Amino acid sequence: MPASVRAGSLKDPEVAELFFKEDPEKLYSDLREIGHGSFGAVYFARDLRTNEVVAIKKMSYSGKQSNEKWQDIIKEVKFLQRIRHPNSIEYKGCYLREHTAWLVMEYCLGSASDLLEVHKKPLQELEIAAITHGALQGLAYLHSHNMIHRDVKAGNILLTEPGQVKLADFGSASIASPANSFVGTPYWMAPEVILAMDEGQYDGKVDVWSLGITCIELAERKPPLFNMNAMSALYHIAQNESPTLQSSEWTDYFRNFIDSCLQKIPQDRPHSDDMLGHAFLQRERPDSVLMDLIQRTKDAVRELDNLQYRKMKKILLQEDHKGQTTEVQDGDEVCELNSVGSNQSIPSMSISASSQSSSVNSLNEAAQDSRSELDLMEGDHTVMSNSSVIHLKPVGGVTREMQEHEQDSELREQMSGYKRMRRQHQKHLMALENKLKGEMDEHRLRLDKELENVHNQFNTPTIHTEAYTDHCCCFGMYENQSTPKKEKQEWLSKQKENIQHFQAEEEANLLRRQRQYLDLECRRFKRRILIARHNVEQDLAREELNKRQTQKDLEHAMLLRHHESMQELEFRHLATIQRARAELIRTQHQTELTNQLEYNKRRERELRRKHVMEVRQQPKSLKSKELQIKKQFQETCKTQTRQYKALRNHLLETTPKSEHKAVLKRLKEEQTRKLAILAEQYDHSINEMLSTQALRLDEAQEGECQVLRMQLQQELELLNAYQSKIKMQTDAQHDKERRELEQRVSLRRALLEQKVRLGH
Ligand code: ADP
Ligand code: MG
User: Fold this and answer.
1) Where is coiled-coil annotated (predicted)?
2) How many CB atoms lie within 10 A of CB 653?
3) Could you tell which of 32, 38, 111, 345 is best to mutate to test the pocket of ligand 1, judged by most ligand atoms within 8 Å of the CB?
4) Residue 160 Rama label (left phi>0; alpha psi -120 to 50; beta)
């Protein structure tokens, strides 16, 4: 493991220079929690040097998976350092303290998701257009620099005081495109991210998809499929039609914009840059749309906070009357009280630099103590309302976020485990592919060398032993004879002259003949030489040709052998990769199934728990019904007694005294009987009530169980369908790969054979 991978290690200078060396505790004050995410918390804070307000994301890298957390921090910091755009959050630096990175950035009022949470209703179309426009500009900037955000959603789109839109949370971002990791938040994930393992890669268009989902989120408060288990949502996205807006109140511009963003096939989906020209964004809208929205939200937050404040005040006053420690009935209020006290979270209206004491403390103290504190709180409250820095989250908003995180921790854990597994699988496959590629290169190199050896062996330059022989010619000489005496002198001299003349002539003739002879001989000789040379050359050429032929034959045999061994290796590699991939997909599917089954069990357990609660509460409602019946019975009894008394009086008046006794006895008997009937009726109606009540509850519960079972069954079927689709896709992919390889190999073979043929 390289040193920089170990959590907190600054050995690598490239990592060390990412962080400032100062102690952040000494540089920033007034920290108050304003957001809560998977890694920890985000704080409002003030820079003591400049008095500037900032946001600080504290990310711990201790405990479980600390090295992984450290890597994530380094990645996020590196990413933030690289980007600079009006529509992405401005980064100010990072500090380290006690196994926690303090990531300092510009302060924003809150996220688009906070807006939805405050208003509890969708945003207006022009507001959505303005937010989407800002976010899309940020995305187009990222994409033009080959980066991908990969976690676009309302919760990660922030708004500033002057109404700017900022992309935030680069914890999932990719510094390179294309990418292939399984990253993001399920409901917003593009289909190709979910299928990334099987089909390879994706690019910035995944952000365009998530932006489309975010539009639906802003228009309907939640992304599509949000009522579904995150796992099931994944399968849904991967294989169902793209979602659309539910209500018909939206314009065609908006619908069309979402349709374009949510094209399932990435090739059909426009780039972020192209989307910027869409009429939905280009349509005219007042400049003040976002400022008005922010003002509207601030007002609503203030209203909500005042409500909470009054509630709290009432509770405290009650407590004050009772003079005992806090024990409040209302669950909500208890929760608020706790959150403020123990978690040090603050009311949304963060106090600007001018205010003195934190509202957290004042509320806290007030809860613990007396009336005078309450007055103090009242004073503080006015300060809060006048403050200029207001976060767009009502009191308890942060607590809610934290609770959501804790409640879903089991599912979250499951999802992050699943994500981790998929990423590991991808890494594993890539490593395997690289390893095999290396092996292949090595193999090819070895074969090439072998071939070269053959070449060298035969190509030792053939020296043509040129058989040139030098040729020399020799010449013989003629001798003359002289005549005696004086007379003869003239004659002689004449003769001599003649002879000389003749001699000269003869000599010339001889010379000519000799020259002719010589020429002839020379030519003959040259011809012989030429023929000899030609023969030698021919022999040599033949020999060379033979050699070349042998070499070619050898080479071809070798090439064929190489081809075969290459082909064998290629097929083996393909098989290895495909086997590995199939195995990874199998374990992935196994995990998906286990997760889904666990989820199903959990849902059933929850329903059972709910039913037990209902059954436990049943006596309460029964008692009231019983009481009601009893009352009716009592009423009837009373009436009967009254009637009995009237009858008795009447009878006593109309009958002689002697018969009074008998009449009274009869009357008494009759009354007893009537009362007994009533009692029986009472019992009966009670029983009936009980049985129908129990029956109704059972029926309702049974119905609920049925619905749940059906829903879970459906989700399981969805998973099955998804998995078999993946399996089919993988099989098809494997087939395609094999076919392509076969084609490649046979083409290579054909070329080789052609070469061999031409060689002959
Ligand atoms: P996570 O990776 O856990 O989603 P985020 O970076 O998205 O973390 O931060 C979590 C929440 O904190 C955001 O949804 C937002 O409400 C708040 N937050 C983050 N950054 C800022 C900021 N610069 N200014 C104001 N609030 C912020
Ligand atoms: Mg986030």
Assistant:
1) 422-453
2) 7
3) 111
4) beta
Percentage of the chain lying above the pLDDT 70 cut: 83
Of the candidates 452, 478, 655, the one whose C-alpha atom is nearest the C-alpha of residue 558 is 452
DSSP code of residue 227: T
The distance from CA 430 to its chain's CA centroid, rounded to whole angstroms, is 17
Contacts of residue 142, defined as CB under 8 A and 6 or more positions apart, other chains included, come to: 83, 85, 88, 148, 149, 167, 173, 204, 207
Report CA(207)–ligand 2 centroid distance (Å): 14
Ligand 2 mean position, distance from CA 491 (Å): 142
Q: Which ligand is nearest to the CA of 37?
A: 1
Alpha helices for 189-330 (secondary structure H)? 191-194, 196-199, 205-220, 230-239, 252-261, 272-275, 279-282, 289-322
> What pairs with residue 47 in β-bridges?
28
The one catalytic residue in 151, 203, 207, 305 is 151
Neighbouring CB atoms inside 10 A of 685's CB total 15
CB atoms within 10 A of CB 553: 13
Ligand nearest, relative to CA of residue 159: 1
C-alpha distances out from residue 373 to 317, 324, 361, 656, Å = 11, 16, 11, 84
| Alpha carbon of 244 to ligand 1 centroid (Å) | 28
Can you give the length of the chain in residues?
760
What is the DSSP annotation of 159-200? E-TT--EEE---TT-BSSSSB----S-GGG--HHHHTHHHH-
Give the pLDDT confidence of 110-122 residue by residue, as tens digits. 999 999 999 999 9
Contact 4, 15 (CB under 8 A): yes
The pTM assigned to this predicted structure is 0.69
Highest averaged pLDDT of the listed ranges 462-471, 486-495, 628-637, 746-755: 746-755
| 58 marked as binding residue | yes
| Ligand 1 contact via 42 beta carbon (within 6 Å) | yes
pLDDT band at 282 (very low <50, low <70, confident <90, very high): very high
Mean pLDDT, all residues of the chain:
81
Is residue 151 part of the annotated active site? The answer reads yes
Using CA positions, which residue lies closest to atom 16 of ligand 1?
Answer: 35
CA-to-CA distance for 543 and 536, rounded, in angstroms? 10
What are the tens digits of pLDDT across the range 176-194?
A: 888 888 899 999 999 999 8
Largest CA distance in the chain: 240
Instruction: Say if ligand 1 is within 6 A of residue 115 CB.
Output: no
Kindly tell me the burial class for residue 437, based on how many C-beta atoms sit within 10 Å of its own C-beta (0-12, 13-18, 19 or more). exposed
- pLDDT (0 to 100) of residue 197: 62
Say how far apart CA 372 and CA 133 lie, in whole Å.
50
Q: Which two tokens stand for residue 173?
A: 């971002």
Share of the chain above pLDDT 90, in %: 35
